[in-house]
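Page 37, continued from 36.
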């Protein structure tokens, strides 16, 4: 059998049912290099996206609520030791205004993201924000880092439906190499379990093209998503930020290779998990102007255009080259409409775009949530 025939067979097998290929086969997909092979991979993943998530792209307005952060992740532009950042924290009125703008634009979902703060005052603040925006009837995702199970439960009770907490890498050794000693990979996994127990649609994800990361690690990341039975994936290429220790240390792959790796991860994840929500991250667009559309054509089904007031966007720079710094939310939406139309897709206005994977699991009787994982 020729190599081309073997790839056809592998893609056919993966497309038939979730988790029908193993880590070695995922690694093989992630290692493809030839243009014609990559095109076959993306076509197969896009076909599974159409079959399992339908036509159209779910949309969430993204509010970057603040860049105060207690963590010192070695790659992140808003790490606490970066004194070059102008720190800000949106107040309740500003977040509510961004949520109203999202609603006005026809987005039925919102993501509130910020640096990581663990305090009673912050917990109460987020509760108040959630209660304040509840009348807008948006599907709300939080991405506010590691918290106690009690805090997750309080925010869930106040109206949040989904939570995104990237594991960053499923390899604890690689995790330790890109985080300071006080950051615990095990705690992050435990937080994901707590989120599941608390009833959220749970999202995780990784950065790809981290220094020292191998295709094997990325294949295991995808298996990790499956083992944790997550509902949503948000992942993207690592992009150095000049004011961080990681950028000063290790060399990275060229931008086009990192973009391609990000697309391969989306495609392989779609082929492995079928019905989860997968976002085409802004980091893809930072590497190529059409990065997000290419993400959709590789199997992503969610986009998160920024609805934060433009004056704060520069202060929330996780990496160099963040796009859309000066485009307000209306311009971003018009631009996305045009870009998606160019690939025969469109934003799904007025629908929350909940994870079908979550809905399917909820519909099954007597799920066991005690371990935080559903078998
Ligand atoms: N504090 C929350 C948390 O820890 O989950 C959410 C904010 S955090 C800044 C959001 C994500 O940005 C991280 O999970 C990480 O994957 C991503 N990120 C940070 N620095 C990055 C970089 N240099 N390149 C690409 N992604 C980056």
């Amino acid at each position: 059998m020729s190599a081309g025939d073997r790839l056809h067979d592998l893609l056919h097998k993966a497309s038939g049912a979730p988790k029908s290929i193993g880590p070695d086969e995922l690694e093989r997909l992630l290692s493809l290099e030839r243009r014609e092979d990559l095109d076959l991979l993306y076509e197969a993943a896009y076909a599974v996206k159409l079959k399992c998530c339908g036509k159209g792209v779910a949309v969430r307005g993204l509010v970057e609520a603040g860049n105060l952060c207690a963590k010192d992740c070695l790659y992140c532009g808003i790490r606490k030791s970066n004194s070059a950042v102008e720190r800000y924290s949106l107040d309740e009125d500003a977040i509510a205004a961004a949520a109203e703008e999202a609603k006005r634009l026809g987005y039925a979902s919102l993501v509130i993201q910020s640096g990581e703060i663990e305090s009673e005052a912050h917990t109460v603040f987020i509760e108040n924000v959630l209660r304040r925006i509840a009348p807008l009837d948006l599907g709300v995702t939080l991405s506010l880092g590691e918290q106690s199970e009690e805090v997750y439960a309080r925010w869930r009770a106040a109206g949040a439906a989904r939570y995104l907490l990237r594991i960053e890498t499923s390899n604890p050794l690689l995790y330790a190499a890109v985080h300071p000693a006080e950051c615990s990979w095990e705690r992050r996994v435990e937080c994901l379990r707590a989120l599941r127990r608390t009833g959220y649609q749970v999202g995780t994800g990784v950065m790809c093209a981290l220094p020292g990361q191998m295709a094997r690690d990325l294949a295991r990341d995808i298996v990790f998503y499956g083992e944790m039975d997550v509902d949503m994936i948000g992942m993207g290429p690592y992009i150095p930020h000049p004011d961080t220790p990681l950028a000063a240390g290790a060399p990275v792959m060229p931008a086009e290779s990192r973009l391609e790796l990000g697309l391969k991860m989306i495609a392989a994840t779609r082929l492995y998990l079928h019905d989860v929500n997968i976002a085409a991250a802004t980091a893809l667009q930072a590497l190529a102007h059409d990065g997000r559309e290419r993400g959709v054509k590789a199997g992503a089904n969610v986009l998160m255009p920024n609805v934060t007031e433009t004056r704060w966007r520069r202060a929330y720079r996780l990496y160099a080259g963040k796009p859309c710094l000066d485009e307000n939310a209306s311009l971003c939406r018009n631009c996305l409409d045009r870009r998606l139309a160019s690939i025969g897709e469109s934003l799904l206005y007025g629908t929350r775009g909940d994870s079908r994977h979550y809905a399917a699991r909820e519909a099954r009787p007597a799920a066991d949530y005690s371990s935080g994982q559903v078998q």
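The CA atoms of residues 311 and 326 lie 8 Å apart. Flag for discussion at group meeting. Strands lie at 58-59, 61-66, 109-114, 139-143, 162-164, 201-204, 207-208, 232-237, 277-280, 302-303.
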